Amino acid sequence: MRKLEVRELGRLPYGEAWDLQKSLAAQRKQGLIPDQFLLVEHPHVLTLGRNGREQNVLVTRERLEQLGIDFFEIDRGGDITYHGPGQIVGYPIVDLREWNRDVVAYVRAIEEVVIRTLRRFNIEGSRDPGATGVWTPEGKICAIGVHISRWVTTHGFALNWTTDLKYFQYIVPCGLQRPVASMRSLGVEVAREQVHQTIVEEFAQVFEYEPALVSAAA
Hints:
The protein is α/β, with parallel strands linked by helices. It has one domain (2-213): Bira Bifunctional Protein, Domain 2 (BirA Bifunctional Protein, domain 2, 2-Layer Sandwich), CATH 3.30.930. It is 26% helix and 32% strand. An eight-stranded mixed β-sheet has the order 7-8-9-10-6-2-1-11, sandwiched between helices. A three-stranded mixed β-sheet has the order 4-3-5, with helices on one face. It is globular, with a radius of gyration of 16 Å. The mean pLDDT is 94.
């Protein structure tokens, strides 16, 4: 079974996490390290994907600065996304040549990991044929956006755990005029460590890995 190194990074500024992703992806392309799975929480930040439209940010850059929200334009797919405290963000850095050279299948598999995770906490998540991510009847609970270079993945998913949903008012999330939800808003109170463990277990099962927790350092 393939090896997966899991790194729990705690709360880390977005720029630092992105630099770490790029460093690990470069090492993965050279075959220096096995596949990686980063779990992290970010301070308030908006990220705009390469296909995104800045008009989906509903306030000025000056207002974002006043609110303490950072802003990054990045190379993943998708539109505008919010990350912040109470969110569980997963960044798989995996070589798809050793799994399946199919970008759509990879995104569907990430959705499956989140759907299975939520089910274990009695939340029924589902796909929407017209919109990537994981949805509940009350709104979108997980955003997904990825980048793939030489079949090595970066970026990933953001699951709303105890997220303060008011911060989504400053954007049109993923370019869609639809509500958002969190595990907490759905009445589920569970420790972050429990969600992390469940995500890792389901990720390992869906992608057929033997996971091992390693140091957070690169």
